[in-house]
Amino acid sequence: MKDPRPHYEGHRKRLRDRLRTSGRESLRDDELLEMLLAYGLPRRDTKPLAKTLIRQFGSYHRVLDASCTEIEQVGGIGEYTSTLFVLVKACMRRYLEMETRDGNVLNSPERVIAYTRAEIGSREKEHFMLLCLNAAGVLIHKEIIAEGTVDLAHVYPREILKTALEKNATALILVHNHPSGSLVPSENDKRLTRTLKELCTNLGISVHDHLIVTRSGAYSITLECEVYPYHRDV
Known about the structure:
By secondary structure, this protein is of the alpha+beta class. The chain has helices at residues 8-22, 29-40, 47-57, 60-65, 68-72, 79-101, 109-121, 157-166, 187-202, and strands at 127-133, 139-147, 171-177, 206-213, 218-220, 225-226. The chain has a 6-stranded mixed β-sheet.
């Protein structure tokens, strides 16, 4: 007798079992998307749709960075499913925000990058973020200092120093994104880092690092190398 269940149910269960027993590392990007789509489209074979999403947007990252409207332009995806995608990323950001509130992020430098990449790494305009630390190395304040165009954000050292002094910070981490995806620092990036380090040193404030973040990685201007995962002790 022919099995009345849809052919994809067995495949879907195998994916669930792999995720539960071996974690996300056991699944490809398209398989993770396939599972997510299945919760929005439980009566549809979502494997082809997952592959279509990655092909159309170019990567797993870009699928999750897409807006509801952009996702809904893919045939077969409606408001309910597109909202599910946005919800997943919103939950991830909230989780990382809670980590910063608990002071845990700076005890695990990889999480500094994970948080800042999730926050500004995929934005279409350049943003400059300031992280202020206290003497115990705990994050006490974060702020977007400047927002610019696709390739430039005007940052004024006096604004950074003003914020650092107001928050009684003893150390800073500077972070900005490159919407182009390039991890190569500009001469302005290097000059700003040198200037801020000199000014902050005179005030007894340490600049731990200046990071460039993108969708796919991070670069330390201080260490002059790509740092994903990030290995500097802060």
